[in-house]
Structures are given as C-alpha cells and as structure tokens.
Specification:
Layout lengths: L8 H15 L8 H15 L4 H9 L6 H9 L10 H20 L6 E6 L6 H12 L8 E8 L2 H9 L1 E2 L9 H7 E4 L2 E4 L1 H4 L2 E5 L11 E6 L8 H14 E9 L13 E4 L2 E3 L18
C-alpha cells in the first residue's frame, strides 16, 4: 500500500477525541506525528488504505478486538524497576514498620493489600514484591497481595510473563538480580517466590475498581496525560479504594494535589487517608525523599 503522510489536523481531532472518550487521556497537538506513526502500524496490519477507513471501521467496531489494540498502540507504556528509589525506601522502611506496629497493637489485621495502578509491564509491581520478599521475617504469617492494573492488554501480558532485560533492570543491584531473578532466554525472569503475592488485571482508571481496603496505592506519572475532569474522576475512584490510614503514592508532575480533599500530606509524593479518631496516630516520615 502507498505510505500515508501524517494525520491532518481534522483527522487528528477525530482520533484524539476517541482516545479521550475511552481513556481520559488528552493527546496534545504536538503528538500528531507520534499518533500518525502508531496508527499507520494498525493500517498496515489490516491492509487498510486510509486513516478515514480505519476510523470508520474502528468506531463501528467492525474489526473485532481492534479498539483494544488501538488503545494499546497509542498509549505510552515505559517504566523500569525501582523507578524513584526513595518511594521504595519509604515502602520497605517507614510504611512496613508502621503497619506491623499497628498489627502488633491489634489495630490492623495481619494483611497487606497494595494496588499498583497503571502498572504498565509490571516493573513497579515486582519492585514492591521484592521489597516484601526482603521483609519476609517481619511479615511472617501475613497475607500479602499486590494488584497490578493497566488499560493495555499487551502490557499486562508482558507483566504476567515477568521477563525483563536492558533498561528495565538498570536500577537492580547485582545482589538483587541474583537473589530475585533467574536467567531466561529473553533476559531475566522474576523468580516464583517473588511472584507469589502478585496478580494482574485490566482496568481503566475512569471506572471504579470494584474493590476497596488497600493499604497503599501507587499511581505515579500517570495522570500527567489526563485533563482536569478525568483527573477528578480517577482520583475519586482511587480514594474510594484506599483504606482508612492508607497511603497514596503519586508522581511529582501528576497535578492532583488540589484534588485530594481531606488527605493528609506527608511529603511531595505521599498522602495519607485519615484513620478514625480512635485509631489516629502520626504518619511515619517519608524520609525526605522526593
């Protein structure tokens, strides 16, 4: 087929509005070349001749499963292990210390639920799982669960596979690599002992999760792509899923700080949902990490 040029402004607007309706993500006009390139791949896959033909088939849902493939193709999914390491230092130190102290005082069950929202290919989930594996003695007898969700089916497939190489592993020390990973044909595979508390499922942040009681929710560098209305909806769902006394870990550029209502600010990346009055206790320090 003849190679297409970039989307026209009118075509870009059609696709941009479709992406926004389905995901809450706003594609800026400066992304027209990026969006054109990614849509061209889908046209080549189906042997289609024009952007207009693809848009018509896509919105009419004439191509079975293509809407999910389209969303996969146009959403950005990049991450790596222990991204912003200070957040994981807080999780494995002050956070776990506070939670185990509350459990010892019978103010919290011996359970831990963590949600990694928009987890992409799973590096954040497994980073958290490594922290728990390294705190195994402290958490003996606990029920542990880490839920990773993403809108992208291909990213979730990669997360479940749990094999990584290159840049994904740059922040993993040789000691951690040897202890928590095993060599595979495609790089390094997360060991089964690390995978045990982890599960993955599809979820759109503009929809309720359908589950509550999370002790910590990580939602970092995700909502920089959302406009204000989408952020309000997503934040509402996140806060509803957070347990009293639970923590929300955010990215510095997400721009949701004025939407967090009664959440207690611990640091620039960390917010706590208030406990009931009878259980109130001072939040642990975030260690000054940004």
């Amino acid at each position: 087929m003849k190679e297409l040029q970039t989307l026209t402004p009118e075509q870009f607007t059609l696709f941009e509005r479709l992406i926004y309706r389905k995901t809450g993500i706003r594609m800026q006009a400066g992304k027209i070349t990026l969006l054109s390139n990614r849509i061209r791949r889908r046209l080549r896959h189906h042997g289609l001749q024009s952007f207009e033909e693809y848009y018509t088939l896509l919105t009419a849902e004439s191509l079975k499963g293509e809407l999910d493939e389209f969303i996969d193709a146009v959403t950005t999914n990049e991450t790596y292990f222990f991204r912003t390491e200070g957040h994981f230092d807080w999780f494995s130190g002050p956070f776990l210390n506070e939670l185990t102290a509350r459990a010892h005082a019978k103010q919290h069950p011996r359970t831990l639920k963590v949600w990694s929202a928009a987890c992409s290919s799973g590096e954040e989930v497994y980073s958290l799982a490594i922290c728990l594996a390294e705190a195994r003695a402290k958490l003996a007898g606990w029920q542990l669960r880490i839920l990773g969700t993403d809108i992208s089916g291909s990213s979730l497939e990669a997360a479940r596979e749990g094999c990584y190489e290159g840049r994904s592993l740059e922040n993993v020390s040789p000691e951690r690599l040897e202890k928590h990973f095993q060599p595979s044909d495609d790089g390094w595979s997360v060991r089964p002992s690390v995978r045990t508390p982890c599960e993955f499922r599809a979820h759109n942040l503009l929809q309720p999760l359908g589950e509550t009681g999370f002790d910590a929710i990580f939602v970092r560098n995700v909502m920089i792509y959302f406009d204000r209305e989408s952020k309000k909806v997503a934040v509402g769902h996140l806060l509803n899923a957070l347990a009293p006394g639970g923590y929300l870990v955010v990215g510095p550029a997400d721009g949701i700080f004025d939407l967090l209502g009664g959440m207690e600010r611990v640091s620039s990346f960390l917010y706590r949902k208030p406990l009931s009055t009878s259980q109130a206790s001072p939040p642990p320090s975030a260690g000054g990490h940004r």
